[in-house]
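quick one, 129 residues, struct below
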Amino acid sequence: MADLVCLPESGVVKVPAHLADEQAATLPWAALTAWSAVVTYDTLDPGSRVLVQGTGGVALFALQFAKLLGAHVTIISSSDAKLTRAQALGADAGINYLTTPEWARSERVVVGQPRLTLACGIGDCLRRI
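---
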């Protein structure tokens, strides 16, 4: 690791004032992880169905990339406020998995078919669908 590097102006961006350097440093990793899941792992076409677990950095990037490709995106979260925010960012549907314990069944109703094109999540999320 270098303490100083020389980069062209086009190779850097200003860190938003509300983020510490450590926080800003995570943004490229979250975006690349989501890009890998949405674009590299699978080929999404307009109308593809994507389920995204959570509302953190990777999840919100996955939402935005999937919407950019024309996919229908459902977000699952334990927070209604975060689901509302995700829908404001473009999510087509949101399901609170605490108030809807059978959320996997609800997701099948939302998308109108039992098969998802891609699920971005971990652990129990992927076992349930």
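The first helix runs from residue 21 to 40.
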